[in-house]
Hints:
Helices cover 48% and strands 18% of the residues. By secondary structure, the protein is α/β, with parallel strands linked by helices. Helix 7 packs across helix 11 and helix 9 packs across helix 10.
Amino acid sequence: xxxxxxxxxxxxxxxxxxxxxxxxxxxxxxxxxxxxxxxxxxxxxxxxxxxxxxxxxxxxxxxxxxxxxxxxxxxxxxxxxxxxxxxxxxxxxxxxxxxxxxxxxxxxxxxxxxxxxxxxxxxxxxxxxxxxxxxxxxxxxxxxxxxxxxxxxxxxxxxxxxxxxxxxxxxxxxxxxxxxxxxxxxxxxxxxxxxxxxxxxxxxxxxxxxxxxxxxxxxxxxxxxxxxxxxxxxxxxxxxxxxxxxxxxxxxxxxxxxxxxxxxxxxxxxxxxxxxxxxxxxxxxxxxxxxxxxxxxxxxxxxxxxxxxxxxxxxxxxxxxxxxxxxxxxxxxxxxxxxxxxxxxxxx
Length: 348
């Protein structure tokens, strides 16, 4: 059954992961019906479904099912088996905002673009450092030599991070190169830390994006695809244009703001899950350079559990999913000049 059930404060919500070739998704009365080889394998009331994600080819969805999903505010996302998103269906009324989008585009040409990008990267760097600290603390007595190496790299990361506040410019075009260069320098150290943290459990050649064939990079790429869908939904609900980014340059079809915004959530939502699964000896199965279906489903389940887990934010514990939505709304208020934007920084 391609289904993940989530429990949170007594509320049952279902995320459907459609991963089998030939699956049919239709509607019967007020329920979403899943069929495989002509047999019903799942039925869920629309009001219990939160998101439908399709990561297989050869899947059919009826227009009746699409209509009811849109009327119930249920997004339908499509991605390849390797985790590359290629389409998303959302209700058209969600894109009806004007003031926020106008200010979002104006912000590209002034100081707001630099301030926002520096906040995103500040959050990313802080979360990289805290993720390493989180896993390193268990090595302090178990493996003092590794712990010492990790501390040395953490000190270098913290030292480079101080340069972020010195980057100036009139708009993001003046500062993009410096910000991304700094991010890259710290990223190299961070992935060296990840390599050390997972040594003996998996062969990690360093960070690779598309075309990666090793277990860790394949899991990261698939996990980031799930996070991207979550982030895009949050931005859209906040009235922002997912394509109107700042740090990531414009390109037709590129959701630049999604890539900008998800920077501060990569480590707490995805990296922690992947590193933990690898260190616990999870059987990661690859076939022809792609994660096999069982591994994709296990990883998706863990990431959704993580999104439902809580972190301290603004003085109280909140679900990570709620924090993402709150931060998206804070971007909207920032570009409208109504409030400052501060990144989410996860504890360790």
